[in-house]
Amino acid sequence: MTTLARATDTLTRDALTVLQPGFAGTTAPDWLLRRLGEGLASVALFGRNVTSPEQVAALTAQLRAEREDVLVAIDEEGGDVTRLEVRTGSSFPGNHALGAVDDVGLTRAVAAELGRRLAAAGVDFNWAPSADVNSNPDNPVIGVRSFGADTDLVARHTAAYVTGMQSAGVATCTKHFPGHGDTGIDSHHAMPRIDVDADVLAGRDLAPFRAAVAAGTRAVMSAHILVPALDPDLPATLSRRILTDLLRGELGYDGLIVTDGIEMKAIAGTYGIERGTAMAIAAGADAICVGGGLSDEGTVRRLSDALVEAVRAGELPEERLADAAERVRALARWTTANRPGAQGSDIADGDVGLRAARRALRVTVAGESAPLTEPAYVAAFTPVANIAVGDETPWGVAAELGRLLPGTETGSFNGADAGREALAAAGSRRIVAVVRDEHRHPWMAAALDVLLAARPDTIVVEMGVPRAEARGALHLATHGAARVCGRAAAEAVVGV
Question: Which residues are catalytic?
C-alpha cells in the first residue's frame, strides 16, 4: 500500500475537486450543496436543469451561496446543441453555419454574445467549441457541430470562437481532442477508431487544437476514440501518450484537460466508469465530466472513492491527483476574476445570431419559383437524434413559417413510407419538406423522391450538412437546425 504524504481528508477533497457532475432538477439538491462544502469544485448543467435564463441565474446563485468560486459548466455549442435554450431552439447558429459564412469576425461576435448570455446566467465554463474537422461526411455525431471539412477553416474559426467567448469571461473547452471528425461511430454508443497515419493527424486534426492553444483556450476536452497511430492500446481519454506527451508536451498546452462524459459507452462499456476515471487522471486528465446520463450522489461517491482507492493502491500517483485538482482551482480563479462586473463586459448584440443565420443560408432555385403566399404543409423528415443533440429541442421551419403564414400545418415522418404519408397529410397544400443530413439517410432520400415525383413544386430545406444534390423547386441549405436557421429559411420561402 502506498504511504500517503498528505491527510486522507485532503486526498478526498482533491478527488471531489476533479469531478464535474450533473444532477436532476432545476434547483440544487441538498446532496450537491453538501458536496460543495466537502470539496466539490464544479457543477455541470444539462437541458434537464434549464427552464429559462432567469431560472438558471437563480440556480447558479444558489450554488455560489454555498461555494463562491464553484465552476458552473454547460454544454452550450449554440446551433443544434443548446442547453440554455433547450425548450425553444438556439438564438445562435452552430459551427457549420459560421464556417459556411467564413467571417472570423462574425464567429468571434457570435461567441462573445453567447458567452455574455451564459455569464449573465451565472455560467462560467462552456464545453465548446467543437474543433473537429468533419472529414468523414457520414460522421453520425459531429456533422454540423463542426465548422467544416477544411482544416484551415476549422482552425481559424476555432481560434475566433475561443477569443470571442473568453472575452465575456466564460472559459472555453475546445473539443474533442485529438479530433472526432473522421469517425463513423458515435462514442456515446461504442469506441470509434481512426486509422490514419500520424502525419495525416498532425496536418488535419491537430491543427485546430494548435490554434485553440495559441488563442488561449482555458480547457481542452478529450475524445473517447482509439487512434492507433498515437496509441495502439488506449483511447485518447485514457492515454498518457496523447494527453501528456502530445497535448502537453508537443502542443505546449498548460490549461485544464477535461474528459468527455465518462459514462459514455466507449469508456463505461469497456473499462467501467470507476476504472476509467482513475485511468484518465493518471493519463493526464484534470477533470472528469459526468452527469449526462448518471446524475446522482451515488455516482459522485463511486468516482471519488475510486480515485482515493487508486491512490492507495499505487495505481494513481497522489501528486498527479493533486496537480489535477490544482488545475481545476486555477481555472476557478480565472473565471472568478473575469466574471461580469470584475472587468466589465462587451455591449450586447442580440441580433448577431439571426444575422449570422441569414448569411449562412444558401438558396438554389430550379426555374421559376414564386414566394410562398398561402399556408403550406411542412413535412419534417425526422432522423433519430444523436445523444449530444438530444430530442428535447424543437427544430425545423414550421413554427417560423406559421408565424409568417398563419394556418400552416406540420407533421413529422420517418421510415420507408415517409414520403407517401407526407403526401397524404399535405393534401392540396404546397409542401415544404425539411430534411436533416439527407445524404446519411436512404429512407429520407427515398421520401423526397416520392414527394418530388408527385409534387415537383415542393420546397426542400436541408438543415444538416448539405451534401446531397440540391433539388426541389426551391432548395435551401441552412447549415444547421437552430431556431434562427429555421427563421432565416422561413423568411426566404415567403420572400421577406
Answer: 188, 260
